[in-house]
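Design request, tokens follow.
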């Protein structure tokens, strides 16, 4: 997690995991999921407590989350859920 992130790591995992479950077949997110083919599934696995986070996993997830925000053209103001994030868009 970088100093610029205000959304906690656990929420980043929750948001990316939910996005993957709900939108992985949505054409609007196809490029995002193809590029973030590691960060997003790892976020889901960490959120579901399937695996434990490592520093490298945290970097992948942080990058994926920042790319998601950039793609949606929103700043990280500290999101609590995927719904909060998508409401801004």
């Amino acid at each position: 997690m970088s100093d610029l992130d205000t959304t906690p790591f656990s929420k980043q995992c929750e948001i990316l995991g939910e996005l993957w479950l709900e939108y992985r077949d949505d054409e609007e997110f196809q490029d995002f999921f193809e590029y973030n083919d590691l960060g997003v599934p790892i976020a889901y696995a960490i959120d579901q407590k399937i695996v434990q986070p490592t520093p490298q996993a945290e970097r992948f997830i942080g990058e994926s989350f920042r790319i998601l925000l950039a793609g949606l053209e929103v700043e990280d103001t500290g999101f609590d859920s995927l719904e909060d994030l998508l409401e801004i868009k």
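Comment from the thread starter after seeing the answer: thanks! Helices lie at 9-23, 30-35, 39-47, 55-72, 82-88.
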